[in-house]
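B., you asked whether I could sanity-check this one before it goes into the benchmark set. Here's the sequence:
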Amino acid sequence: MAVSPGVEPSITVHGDVSTSRRSGRVRKPTAKIRVVEQVNYQENADLKEEINRLSNLVQDLLRRDAEREQLLKDCLKKTESLERELQEEKQRSDWHHRGLARSMHA
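And here's what the prediction gave me:
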């Protein structure tokens, strides 16, 4: 039973507690209780669906965050590697220039 938010079904239970007391027992409005249980069941189902949707969103965000973090780590490693290569190239170039300068002065 689908119930729109803010719209509650109405059930009329005929008779009241005072007329039922004459026979020595009080009747419960069982029809109303069943409708409330159905509405609560539907609301619970809607809440479970919303919780699942939010849980999926959180999992997606955590996955994306982990992927982003891994990408940053990979970029940092590549940057450090390129910096080492650049430093090594600079040292080779310096040694080469010093070697040329020595050979010219010799």
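One thing to flag: The mean pLDDT is 78. Otherwise nothing jumped out at me.
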